[in-house]
Amino acid sequence: MKTARGEQVGSAAALMVFCVFAMLAFSVIMLGAIAYKNIAGTSREGAAERTCLSYIWTSVKNRDGAENTFVGDFNGLPALYIEETLNDTVYHMVIYHYDGWVRELYAYAAYEFDPEAGSRIIEVDTLSFEQLDDGNIIISCGELSVFIAPRLPGSFGSRYMKEVMT
Question: 70, 60 in Cβ contact below 8 A?
């Protein structure tokens, strides 16, 4: 009988040790999952801002034949205009922020469009443009900013992008 009681005490102790180990393992897994969720959320937010700025910079860079790159007003919204002439017709590529999205609209310069007409590019919280006196442009998306020096028509200088500390 003493043997049976000793086995019960030993089994109960082993069960308690296993339960403590299981609770600790579960706690570590939950803490890791919470940390991963926070890191992934922060990474996604920064990725959207970096993608937004890279997209705009690439749009400006790919329009080497553009006659003008300037900041203007698009139906009351700040916008970046890239103007080019093809077959004696002036076109505007307009990049702006509307309804939580960076949008792009490529159309005849003479026509007026509703902001909803632009194609959705990427979802971001904020987007702003600032044109400096020398024609260079600062573009801010969320907490990140870039400095763009558009190429002047007929020049052979290169455009460049530089991150601006805000």
Answer: no
The 10s digit of each residue's pLDDT in 81-107 is 998 888 888 899 999 999 999 999 998
* Phi and psi torsions of 135, nearest 5°: 95, -10
Long-range pairs of 152-160 with CB within 8 A, sequence gap ≥ 24: 153/67, 153/68, 159/60, 159/61
d(CA 82, CA 67): 8
Beta-carbon contacts of 92 under 8 Å, excluding residues fewer than 6 positions away, are 81, 82, 83, 105, 106, 107, 108, 109
Helix (H) or strand (E) holding 102: strand 101-108
Closest CA to 99 of 69, 63, 123: 123
Q: Taking the domains of the chain in order of start, what are their residue ranges?
A: 1-166
- Given a cut of 50, the residues of the chain with pLDDT beneath it are 1, 154-160, 165-166
Cβ atoms of residues 161 and 145 within 8 Å: no
